[in-house]
Amino acid sequence: MPTQEQVLESLRSVIDPELRRDIVELEMVRSIEVHDNGVVDVIVSLTTPGCPIRSHFQTGVAQAVRELEGVSGVNVSFDVLSDNEKAALGRKLGRGSLPEGALAQVRNVICVGSGKGGVGKSSVTANLAAALSAEGNQVGVLDADVWGYSQPRMLGLGAQRPRVSAERKLIPLSALDGVKVMSIGFFVEQDAAVVWRGPMLHKALQQFLEDVDWGELDYLLIDLPPGTGDVSMTLAQLLPQAKFLIVTTPQPVAQKVARRSAEMAAKLKLEIAGVVENMSGPIFGEGGGSLLAEELEVPLLASIPLSVTLREQSDAGVPLVFENPDDPAAQALRQAARGVIALTPVELPVMQEPSPAAAPKPAGMSLPMA
Ligand code: ADP
Question: Which one-letter DSSP state was computed for residue 330?
Answer without folding.
Answer: H
